Amino acid sequence: MTINVKAEAMDWIRKAHELGPQIAARAEAADAGDAFVAENMKLLKEEGFHAAGVPAELGGGGASPAELSEMLRALARHCGSTALAFAMHTHAVALPAWRWRRTPEAVEGLLKRIVAEKLTLVSSGGSDWLDGSCEAKPVEGGFRVSGRKIFASGCPLGDLLVTMAVQETPEGPTVLHMAIPLKAEGVTILDTWRTLGMRGTGSHDIELKDVFVPDAAVTVRRPSGKWHPLMHMVTLVAFPLIYSVYLGLAEAARDKAVAMAGRKTSDDLALIVGEMDTELAAARLALADMVACTAGDEPGQDATNRIMTGRTLVARAAIRTVEKAMDAAGGGAFYRKVGLERIWRDIQAARYHPLQEKAQARLAGRVALGLPID
Questions:
Q1: Which fold is adopted by the domain 7-119?
Q2: Residue 283 confidence class, pLDDT cut points 50, 70, 90
Q3: Is the omega angle on the peptide bond into residue 355 within 30 degrees of 0, that is, cis?
Q4: CB count, 10 Å around CB of 82?
Q5: Is 207 in a helix, a strand, or coil?
Q6: How far apart are CA 370 and CA 297, in angstroms?
Q7: What is the mean pLDDT of residues 4-10?
Q8: Which of 50, 275, 317, 350 is most open to solvent, judged by the fewest CB atoms within 10 Å of its CB?
Q9: What would the 3-class secondary structure string for 232-290 be?
């Protein structure tokens, strides 16, 4: 099952599949050596994928969120790390592209720069979320920002860190949204990414030491720990794209398992494969609803609840699909050369993006009971 997209825009999905073998060829070595998938990311940029989500009117690829979802899902079938690292750039582009249709003056400059300068954006949203992190001290003309960001996927080749810092004000902690050049003085990428899975995403820590951020680089100010309209926008646009990667991984695991099962015809195997396909169908339906929410809903409490519920459902079902794929493939799945155990490790990352399962369930319960969500 695929999510409906316009036929003329399917080119990005086709191109992702065409590049798949090149991307897959580097995946095993990156995983084995904890190495960033730099060549894959460079290839995607050379082919114009970095601007796929920029509106065509501004020189970009004009891909809709649904098309970007299918593109990332296709990439994930070949390399989870490449797809996830690229998803973090993609959603950081998709959000201003979504806003451009409503308030173009606020984001048009950034979108034009992505095209003209071939910028790669790096997000720290997963480590910041509602509370924000790092300290912003007011100075003449702006702020000095210090602290440490984690899970900065794609940072070894990144250009702009799209991030947050917290200023102490009389009204309480205030989160400042800002973009910081990764080559700015005081910015250091720390070689910290040693993980169970998604080893090639280059999601290192970034240390900020008295980095100067001009007032003009601060785009939004909001209370720490509160659901602000911008965070509802982030949820609406970003999470269907991120979780497209996990669906693509589950689909790849399913296909590998069926191929390994070969001509075996036992009822026990048929049961496992049927359970696997049932879980995969659940993941596909949940992601389709998330994408439909992006296309049809406005950001706010209800849309956020719908998206985050989908996020939990996709994560659960995708992880279970891969577990069933391991069962269906049998002992052969234990060998690294097959690639299933790498998918099993990569899919575990679906657990850790916000809102994690308990926090999501609490949000859903508060919405159902008519309680404040902050």
A1: Butyryl-Coa Dehydrogenase, subunit A; domain 1 (1.10.540)
A2: very high
A3: yes
A4: 30
A5: strand
A6: 20
A7: 45
A8: 275
A9: HHHHHHHHHHHHHHHHHHHHHHHHHHHHHHCCCCCHHHHHHHHHHHHHHHHHHHHHHHH
Short-list 164, 97, 156, 175, CA closest to 125: 164
Render the burial of 206-221: b for 16+ CB within 10 Å, e for the rest: bbbeebebeeebbeee
Pairwise CA distance, residues 330 & 326, whole Å? 6
Burial class (CB in 10 A: 0-12, 13-18, 19+), 183: exposed
Q: Where are the domains of the chain?
A: 7-119, 123-223, 229-368
Report in angstroms the alpha-carbon separations of 360 from 76, 297, 355.
25, 19, 5
> What pLDDT shows up at residue 5?
46
Q: What is the DSSP string of 83-138?
A: HHHHHHHHHHHHHHHHHHTT-HHHHHHHHHHHHHTT--EEE-HHHHTTT--SEEEE
Q: Which of 355, 354, 334, 330 is nearest to 344 (CA)?
A: 334
Q: What are phi and psi of 208, to 5 degrees?
A: -115, 125
pLDDT of 1 > 70? The answer is no
Q: Find residue 147's DSSP bridge partners.
A: 208
CATH architecture of the domain with range 229-368:
Up-down Bundle (1.20)
What is the average per-residue pLDDT within 359-374? Answer: 97
What's the CA gap between 226 and 273, in Å, rounded? 44
Per residue in 71-93, pLDDT tens?
999 999 999 999 999 999 999 99
pLDDT tens sequence across 169-178: 999 999 999 9
Q: Is 56 helix (H, G, I), strand (E, B) or coil?
A: helix
Cα 297 vs. chain centroid, distance in angstroms? 20
Q: Quick: pLDDT tens for 244-276.
A: 999 999 999 999 999 998 877 799 999 999 999
What is the average per-residue pLDDT within 229-257?
Answer: 98
Share above pLDDT 70 across residues of the chain, in percent, rounded to a whole number: 97
**What is the predicted pLDDT for the residue at 263?**
74
